[in-house]
Design goal:
single chain, 295 residues, mainly beta, 11-stranded antiparallel β-sheet, 3 helices, 11% helix
């Protein structure tokens, strides 16, 4: 296979995996361990964690409609010095339901509609993804686990991979103004081309509060490694980067608005032919709770 064909395959692969590789998705194994502003989990045989502080905010049952918009840009440094840029903007309209008498709650997320500008995706692919339904479990501090989709599709899997960003981690003892805590996660990511593992450390701080919400600022650093491709032509991926976000977390126990940005430096290599493609990834995102922000 020619070097040019390998390059085109890598470019196509990256256009498929960019969203999926940015955060955990369906089938992701997540192990958050909030520290610094909350109560650590009990050791086996140890005492139970302290109760939530009076007046502190935690996740609660709620039904919401969210608009989740991402703008993604990839810059590939191709062999010979050429540069290729891939960009798209995608908005997912989601119906989110958190149910149950007590945590862990049952979570239901349905992709009602999807809009995209740019990219290499056909309208039929977007249409097939609409209606995808995910179910999972949510702890009172925002640990989303056992997330499963009722169908598989390229775009649906990409949207599913970004869903954990809807649920920022909270201190185990509850969120209060002035809280500061850290969340460490290890995730197994399944992208179209790669089976990868990501380790991320996120620092959170509650910086302001009003009668409706508490503002949370988050900063994340992460490292990611993965392998993929075909047996005859395996590919390897390494990445490192950062994320930052600002959430307005409602005192009713759900996100009202949020916005943030991701950046990563990615290296894709094909050892069999000695080819390496550096990639710079940049993304911005915004979440709007359509019910909470409605006049």
């Amino acid at each position: 296979m020619s070097l040019a064909l390998h390059t085109r395959r890598i470019a196509h692969t990256l256009s498929l995996m960019i969203v999926a590789a940015c955060s955990g998705g369906p089938g992701v194994e997540t192990s958050p361990r909030p520290t610094g502003g909350g109560t650590p989990p009990p050791e086996p045989g140890g005492d139970a964690p302290l109760p939530v502080a009076p007046g502190a905010v935690v996740y609660r049952p709620a039904t919401t409609s969210l608009a989740f918009t991402r703008r993604d840009s990839l810059t590939l440094q191709l062999p010979g010095g050429a540069t290729q840029v891939q960009e798209f903007r995608r908005t997912a309209f989601l119906a989110v339901s958190v149910r149950g008498a007590a945590a862990p709650y049952d979570v239901s997320i349905r992709l009602d509609s999807l809009r995209q500008e740019g990219g290499l995706i056909s309208p039929d692919s977007l249409f097939r993804a609409e209606g995808t339904h995910w179910t999972g479990s949510l702890s009172a501090s925002g640990q989303l686990t056992d997330l499963q989709a009722d169908r598989a599709s390229q775009i649906g899997d990409q949207v599913g991979a970004t869903l954990p960003v809807l649920f920022p981690a909270l201190p185990l003892s509850g969120l209060e103004q002035g809280s500061a805590w850290t969340d460490t996660t290890e995730r197994k990511l399944k992208a179209d081309a790669f089976d990868a593992t990501e380790r991320a450390v996120t620092s959170y701080k509650a910086t302001a509060a009003d009668s409706r919400a508490i503002t949370i600022e988050s900063r994340t650093t992460f490292e990611r490694k993965g392998t993929g491709g075909q047996a005859a032509q395996p590919m390897e991926m390494t990445a490192g980067g950062s994320r930052q976000g600002v959430y307005r977390f409602g005192k009713t126990g759900t996100v009202m608005t949020a916005e943030g940005a991701d950046s990563a430096e990615i290296t894709i290599s094909v050892p069999a032919v000695g080819q390496t493609v550096p990639v710079s990834q940049r993304a911005t995102w915004r979440i709007e709770n359509l019910q909470a922000t409605r006049p």
